[in-house]
Amino acid sequence: MKLKSIIVFCVMACLAAGLAAQEVQTKRIPDFTLTDIEGRTFNLSKNLGNGPIYVSFWATWCKPCVEELKIIERLYQKYESQGFQVVAINTEGPKASAKVKSFVKSYGFTFKILLDNDGEVFRRKFKGAAMPFTVMANANGNVVFSAVGFKPGDEVEIEKKIVENLIVPPDTTGEAKPGTTGQSGSEQ
Predict the structure, then answer these.
(1) Which of 18, 29, 131, 176 is in Cβ range 3.0-4.6 Å of 137 for a Cys bridge?
(2) H or E stretch including 158?
């Protein structure tokens, strides 16, 4: 009986270790390279390290997507100087590229707008199925927030995660800067 208990314990420990390894692996944001609406190449891994990065998959016809992006624009304006980045990835395909550019201009979005024309990044790398689909990673590329859908009030949790993961630049005056926590989210 004692031997059987030891064997069961060892099997359970191995399974738990395997699940923990899988969990750690899935908590890293997938790397990708896409083109922005100006034709420039953007690579996610080359843009990590400065602070949290918010990746949102969206479409012009998706009302919750547009509401999310309007609120995220305000948060981007508030925290951009502290390293917060936003990457909004349109998933409508190559025929919509011109429409996306004018759409973005009409709303005054100032963050990066990328085009996932073949859906490869949304479907294969992020396993997305519905929009808006959002993933936020800290400066190390570890996922700190993810959500499918958006409703008014979600911005409270999003802003909390942004602030928790800001990398606050050193203050040479010795005074605390308003709106900063003094903590780095890269230690999570």
Answers:
(1) 29
(2) helix 154-164
CATH superfamily, domain at 32-168: Glutaredoxin (3.40.30.10)
149 DSSP assignment = S
Task: Tell me the per-residue pLDDT of 58-98, one tens digit each, with 9 for 90 and over.
Answer: 999 999 999 999 999 999 999 999 999 999 999 998 888 88
Domain boundaries in the chain? 32-168
Instruction: Kindly list the distances between the CA atom of residue 81 and the CA atoms of 6, 46, 119, 148, in Å, as whole numbers in the listed order.
Output: 55, 18, 31, 27
**Strands 133-137 and 143-148, bridge-based pairing:** antiparallel
pLDDT tens digits, one per residue of 124-150: 999 999 999 999 999 999 999 999 999
Chain CA centroid to CA 86, Å: 8
